DNA sequence: TCCCTACTAGGGCGATCGCCCTGTACGACT
DNA sequence: AGTCGTACAGGGCGATCGCCCTAGTAGGGA
């Protein structure tokens, strides 16, 4: 059994993590300060350093847990598909909900960038992304895609890249038609196997 | 004829831009301050606001001019190739010089991210990237690649995405073998046109 | 010679930053 | 009832921030 105070403390910790996951995309990683964070979570600034050793460690935990959560959901979605082509279309359809300037996309890119300057964060994120790549690669392998793990890596990277460019306001129209060629021998091209 | 003072001023302005292009990847976009910048350029902090209306505008100009310069060089490199497959291999070979955590890669990602919070910067960068996509797409069209502009967009985005992931320390081994399928009908696959 | 323009140096203002220190409220134990 | 430990509030410290203001310097045109 836990004391009510401990339970409240756990809830406050959770609120701080959620506030961080909101504020990182809103204001950029470096612009999330203890004051802003505490205000969003409805606590006083000193509470931040009570629950976390540093602001960095709070941001690291908030970002990685959100990323792990989202990639797990994406993989579950992919598992419901039956062919690699369907998987790519599903993946890109789910990506269509993101503008590249939305909270989720920005959280990923902010985290990628921050990880180049924080070894702990880099290892955490590398683990999360590697796990997704490995699971997706294994799925592609089971479905007969050649070079499955390399393809999974390129697809994951392309997805991030497409969202990155989409954030610029450049229209990235229907990349699925192009990316589908990664898993099938040019299905709807006019010239087929002339080589 | 220009006065020697004006010429010196122009040189100082150039040094400030170069210092900014160095410091953005080094310390992150938000961490480039007028003091640090001035120190790197060998001038006093107040000089920054003499040559530029604001720190933001300095960073915007530094980032976009570097990006334009680099993409122009990349396109020139692509123009020396003869087939789309060779172009992709050349592009990825040149990307192999980047670790994803190097100055150039980080400058791009930092600029992408900063552009989501600055309309002026977003328009500048969108113009630079759109120009590259357009020129590369026209090249692909001339070489018979289907959906050339979409393919160019996806390739450009994938390139950025691969570098983004590479910065995590995840090995992205030889993505060229995978991306080559974008421009040819699965050249070395075991099963060919069984569909 | 004098002025005028372009460039640079120095200092300062108000604001914000991460983090620390101290004091307090309060339920759980002996 | 008294003690203790956990969770939070408030204030402050030193540092850094972008930007502004003023004074000073140097070379070209009148």
From TrEMBL, chains A, B:
Pfam families for this protein: TetR_C_31, TetR_N
Keywords: DNA-binding, Transcription, Transcription regulation
GO molecular function: DNA-binding transcription factor activity; transcription cis-regulatory region binding
InterPro entries from the UniProt entry: Homeodomain-like_sf, HTH-type_TetR-like_transc_reg, HTH_TetR, Tet_transcr_reg_TetR-rel_C_sf, TetR_C_31
Source taxon at top rank: Bacteria
Keyword Transport (UniProt): no
Entries under PROSITE patterns matching the protein: HTH_TETR_2
Protein name: TetR family transcriptional regulator
């Amino acid at each position: 059994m836990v004391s009510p105070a401990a339970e409240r403390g756990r809830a406050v910790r959770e609120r701080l993590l959620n506030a961080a996951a909101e504020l990182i995309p809103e204001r950029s990683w470096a612009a999330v300060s203890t004051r802003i964070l505490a205000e969003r979570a409805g606590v006083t600034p000193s509470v931040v350093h009570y629950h976390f050793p540093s602001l960095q460690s709070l941001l690291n935990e908030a970002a990685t847990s959100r990323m792990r959560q989202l990639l797990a959901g994406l993989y579950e979605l992919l598992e419901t598909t039956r062919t690699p082509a369907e998987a790519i279309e599903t993946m890109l359809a789910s990506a269509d909900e993101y503008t590249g300037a939305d909270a989720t996309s920005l959280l990923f890119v902010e985290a990628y960038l921050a990880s180049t300057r924080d070894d702990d964060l880099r290892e955490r994120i590398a683990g999360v992304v590697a796990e997704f790549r490995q699971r997706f690669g294994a799925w592609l392998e089971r479905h007969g895609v050649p070079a499955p793990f390399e393809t999974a890596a390129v697809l994951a990277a392309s997805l991030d890249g497409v969202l990155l460019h989409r954030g610029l306001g450049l229209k990235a129209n229907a990349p699925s038609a192009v990316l589908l060629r990664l898993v099938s021998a040019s299905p709807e091209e006019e010239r087929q196997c002339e080589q």
